[in-house]
Amino acid sequence: MGIVVDNLQRIREECEVLKMTDKQIKEIMCRLHNDLKKGLSRADHDKATVKCWITYIQDLPNGKERGKFLALDLGGTNFRVLIINLGENHFDMQSKIYAIPKHIMTGTGIALFDHIAECLANFMKEHGVYEERLALGFTFSFPLKQLGLTKGVLQRWTKGFSCSGVVGEDVVQGLKDAIARRGDVQIDICAILNDTTGTLMSCAWKNHNCKIGLIVGTGSNACYVEKTANCELFDGEPEKEELLINTEWGAFGDDGSLDFVRTEFDREVDVTSINPGKQIQEKMISGMYLGELVRLALVKFTRMGLLFGGQGSDLLFEGGSFYTKYVSEIESDKPGDFTSCMEVLEELGLSHASDADMAAVRYVCECVSRRAAHLVSAGIATLLNKMNEPRVTVGIDGSVYRFHPHFHTLMCEKIAQLVRPGLQFDLMLSEDGSGRGAALVAAVACREAEQGS
Ligand code: GLC
């Protein structure tokens, strides 16, 4: 017994590196704030790690948008095609998920766009709109330098994609070309947007305080409403006072500014990823990496003889075998109950785990997910303080936020502690931001075009 308690105690001590002190969190906020300012500034933008791309979306939905729209959603684990009917105070939506095979994720851009266009045409056939000419909003959740609402140049791939021939190119053109190569369907691409933007738009349709969109899913990123006067790179007509900025904060830390809180596990996740040195903050927060961070810690503690009697399993030692959904499942167990934890460990070939091992595994999960929630909170509090508005709603989507049992509560507590006194905020789950948001952006673009004509 003494040894067992000692092991758990030692694991707790080893996990101290995963905790960020208040002082460290304040320092992170300060650095992020500076990076946001650099991203927005004409002089520093090129050197900035947090790029703060201008989205060219200046109009939030006013609830009056109507009509039938198509949407594409590419950028998480799945690719989806949607058809959405916007009516008075309601909308109906049908969608289908298509797999993106690994060889396409890492193949050529042409093959990727051909695959997307094929899924789109099949979807239109299945939904009886193959012959119609429809407007489409394209949620493309990667860093884009937008040159307009329908023109966006890919800056880098993130989250496991690496298709050749797309970085530096206009993604809308890539999709148009693929549609033209088929020659069978008539589509007007009205807008290209990020998933954070879609999330914000979809919440703003109902809630006019929604001025931040956040994703904590496969990747992590946020967009927010900024005063046009602060966006030095905006070259459109400054008739609108505000515009939407896609921060691409996943790249925060790419210049070493998070090194003071990174651990050996973070460095290992980074060097074994397909984009070493890139998306450093994202690799500490998002669903693509949280499970792997936990796994690396468990491997270390097993090798130290502190877990599983020093006996691992082939799967435990295999990269990527500990899914992020396991973290959510394990933390969903009630205190003292290890039902889900046991199931996960059995799946990993660790059925010899003792109760003390399970308590330790759960502790490691808690440390990794808490740190992620605290980093996200630091980011949101930085944005809220910068915006300095009395009450802001944050629209949120993504598998980690949606399925982790404590992420929402952890964020509420931490943001409340970090935000300037007097500022109020609400965290709102966005129902299918990327899909509905894309249709809304397309609808707003049509609304504007009609009003303009
Ligand atoms: C990655 C992408 C970003 C996206 C985020 C969430 O960080 O670069 O564009 O918003 O993932 O999907």
UniProtKB/TrEMBL annotation:
<keyword id="KW-0808">Transferase</keyword>
<dbReference type="InterPro" id="IPR001312">
    <property type="entry name" value="Hexokinase"/>
</dbReference>
<keyword id="KW-0547">Nucleotide-binding</keyword>
<dbReference type="GO" id="GO:0005536">
    <property type="term" value="F:D-glucose binding"/>
</dbReference>
<comment type="similarity">
    <text>Belongs to the hexokinase family.</text>
</comment>
<dbReference type="GO" id="GO:0005524">
    <property type="term" value="F:ATP binding"/>
</dbReference>
<dbReference type="GO" id="GO:0006096">
    <property type="term" value="P:glycolytic process"/>
</dbReference>
<protein>
    <recommendedName>
        <fullName>Phosphotransferase</fullName>
        <ecNumber>2.7.1.-</ecNumber>
    </recommendedName>
</protein>
<comment type="function">
    <text>Catalyzes the phosphorylation of various hexoses to hexose 6-phosphate.</text>
</comment>
<dbReference type="GO" id="GO:0001678">
    <property type="term" value="P:intracellular glucose homeostasis"/>
</dbReference>
<dbReference type="Pfam" id="PF00349">
    <property type="entry name" value="Hexokinase_1"/>
</dbReference>
<keyword id="KW-0067">ATP-binding</keyword>
<dbReference type="Pfam" id="PF03727">
    <property type="entry name" value="Hexokinase_2"/>
</dbReference>
<keyword id="KW-0324">Glycolysis</keyword>
<dbReference type="InterPro" id="IPR043129">
    <property type="entry name" value="ATPase_NBD"/>
</dbReference>
<comment type="pathway">
    <text>Carbohydrate degradation; glycolysis; D-glyceraldehyde 3-phosphate and glycerone phosphate from D-glucose: step 1/4.</text>
</comment>
<dbReference type="InterPro" id="IPR019807">
    <property type="entry name" value="Hexokinase_BS"/>
</dbReference>
<feature type="domain" description="Hexokinase C-terminal">
    <location>
        <begin position="211"/>
        <end position="444"/>
    </location>
</feature>
<comment type="pathway">
    <text>Carbohydrate metabolism; hexose metabolism.</text>
</comment>
<dbReference type="InterPro" id="IPR022673">
    <property type="entry name" value="Hexokinase_C"/>
</dbReference>
<feature type="domain" description="Hexokinase N-terminal">
    <location>
        <begin position="11"/>
        <end position="205"/>
    </location>
</feature>
<dbReference type="GO" id="GO:0005829">
    <property type="term" value="C:cytosol"/>
</dbReference>
<dbReference type="GO" id="GO:0008865">
    <property type="term" value="F:fructokinase activity"/>
</dbReference>
<keyword id="KW-0418">Kinase</keyword>
<dbReference type="InterPro" id="IPR022672">
    <property type="entry name" value="Hexokinase_N"/>
</dbReference>
<dbReference type="GO" id="GO:0005739">
    <property type="term" value="C:mitochondrion"/>
</dbReference>
<dbReference type="GO" id="GO:0004340">
    <property type="term" value="F:glucokinase activity"/>
</dbReference>
<dbReference type="GO" id="GO:0006006">
    <property type="term" value="P:glucose metabolic process"/>
</dbReference>
